[in-house]
Amino acid sequence: MSTVPLVRINYRRPPGRLQVFEQRLVYDGPDVKVTLAESLPYEPPMRIEGKVVLELGSDVVWFTFPGAWHDIGRFHRADGTFTGLYANILTPAELNGLDWDTTDLFLDAWMAPDGTIDLLDEDELDEALGRGWIDSETGERARAEGQKLLEDGRAGVWPPPIVNEWTLDRCRDVLRRGL
Known about the structure:
This protein has 179 residues and is α+β, with helices and mostly antiparallel strands. The chain has one domain (6-174): FomD barrel-like fold (Beta Barrel), CATH 2.40.380.10. It contains 4 helices and 9 strands, in the order βββββββββαααα. The chain has helices spanning 122-130, 136-155, 162-165, 168-177, and strands spanning 6-13, 17-28, 33-48, 51-64, 71-76, 82-90, 94-96, 99-111, 117-120. It has a 7-stranded mixed beta barrel with strand order 1-2-3-4-5-6-8. A hairpin with a 5-residue loop joins strand 8 (99-111) and strand 9. The longest helix is centred in the C-terminal third of the chain and has 20 residues, at 136-155. The two termini are 12 Å apart.
């Protein structure tokens, strides 16, 4: 049995969906929390730009930055092949011990392994605003965050170095050894 703590992430998606994710907390720093989501049930596979980025049995290394309006996931195929970085634009996570809460703001950023970066799901954000699921101020905050990720990614200053330091192999090693 692992001595690595299990975090419960309450992930809200307006207007009323709640998903609860349980992930292992492999690193708990003051500026970043690194969790590992194991053997995800992606059936059918998730595709971005026509390529499978998550599939049944995939693992994702997640980075939660206290106070930030996005998180970052290192996506992998079931065989462990790195497929890219995915950033959810969301409300800053409320971290209550091992119980976390956040709300998805629909917009996402994707950075392929070659470093190209794009915004995803702008249509979903537009729909959420049109239906009143989120207010215009929050929608503008989401768009600003997405634009900042695009600009920083293209300038080579995003993601932060820790995202490349915490690989899937490093996380698996922490689980094997315990904390």
